[in-house]
């Protein structure tokens, strides 16, 4: 019996606080901005890309001292080297992404109208490798994160503008699926992304100050102290973080760059529209 | 010790003897409360400190209200148990996980947690 309940939960079918009516991307962004502005009148909208550190002076001081000696410089150098290395068939990354590395990060995520799906930067990196007969990178950490982080760093300062073509019902549906994912209660602990990153952002879960969703994606991939302590080098992609935030509520996590997380990213990244890219960054 | 009178040493010994004898009986309640505390603090079980301040807990969160003066808050222990079992019944959008309904804790663990929280 217990097993059965768990299976239903894991599929994420409990949508108890999903807003009952569909809203547009522009409405969602405006609503969130207004919500956070009211809760924290002294926090500037743009500063929320610094996550929890925009909300606590104490946390911010620690974070700033960590950033004085960024732990990820060597990995960015590897990322650049990857960009400059041709495939065995002689092609370069430019054959997939164009030849200006500063013009790549900010085109993602985007809607591919022909294949009717959301494309993510990391998903397309893997696709590019496969198309060129290369062994693809692992999906969530290691080289894919170094490469993606370097590409993002080349785009720093650019304004995020994820586009959801309102005249394409499939694109709108993908966005809506991402929004549902974000607001749906899930897992054995019955928590939604919004519970932690909208309603309770600014509060503490144990020692963790919960960050606001606005600004969540501006600085990914991130280098996390916690990931470094768990045996890796600290770097991880956005979909790695999704997996972690799903499994901590004992919900099923989904495949990186699969449909669920790509749709989630489409919504989630949209919520940072108008903010600037500032990647990579350090997180505790 | 050096300044202690002989009679008080004897008294201590007697108390020690009595309490040793009494340990197995030391009210079922206390054992239950101790188990409840363990389950409540255990990160893999109740993990209540993620959201609640509880006396004696460190690095506590503040998503939920501090759990203090619980007898005043819950004159009816059964209501406390019902809330721990499924807070969503009273508060549909709550952050608090439905510990009984979704099988996060067993029924006997919830009994123990109820006893412990009610003692705060």
Descriptive key words:
heterodimer; A: 284 residues; 12 helices; disordered N terminus; B: 120 residues; mainly alpha; Cytochrome Bc1 Complex, Chain D, domain 2; 5 helices; 0% strand
Explain how this protein is built.
Chain A is mainly alpha-helical. Helices cover 43% and strands 6% of the residues of chain A. Chain A has helices spanning 2-10, 25-39, 57-67, 73-83, 94-97, 121-131, 143-154, 169-183, 193-199, 225-229, 238-247, 259-270, and strands at residues 110-112, 117-119, 204-205, 208-209, 222-224, 235-236, 281-283. Chain A is globular. Mean pLDDT of chain A is 90; it is low at 1-18. The model of chain B is unreliable at 1-24 (pLDDT under 50). By secondary structure, chain B is an all-alpha fold. Chain B has a single domain (6-119), classed as Orthogonal Bundle (Cytochrome Bc1 Complex, Chain D, domain 2). Chain B is 47% helix and 0% strand. Chain A binds chain B through residues 2, 5-6, 9, 16-17, 188-191, 195, 199-200, 203-208, and chain B through 49-51, 59-63, 88, 92-93, 95, 97-98, 102-104.
Structure described in brief:
The complex is a heterodimer of chains A (284) and B (120). Chain A has 284 residues and is mainly α.
Name the beta content range of chain B.
under 5%
Strand arrangement, major sheet of chain A: 6-5-7
Q: Tell me the name of the CATH class of chain A.
A: Mainly Alpha
Largest sheet of chain A: 3 strands, mixed
Structural class by secondary-structure content of chain A: mainly alpha
CATH class of chain B: Mainly Alpha
Q: What is the mean predicted local confidence, pLDDT of chain A?
A: 90
How many helices of chain B?
5
The named CATH superfamily of chain B: Cytochrome c-like domain
The general outline of chain A is globular
Annotated CATH architecture of chain B: Orthogonal Bundle
Terminus-to-terminus distance of chain B: 35 Å
Domain count of chain A: 1
Order of helical and strand elements of chain A: HHHHHEEHHHHEEEHEHHE
Proper CATH architecture of chain A: Orthogonal Bundle
- In round numbers, the mean pLDDT of chain B is 84
Uncertain regions of chain A: pLDDT < 50 for 5+ in a row?
1-18
What is the terminal separation of chain A in angstroms? 39 Å
Number of strands of chain B: 0
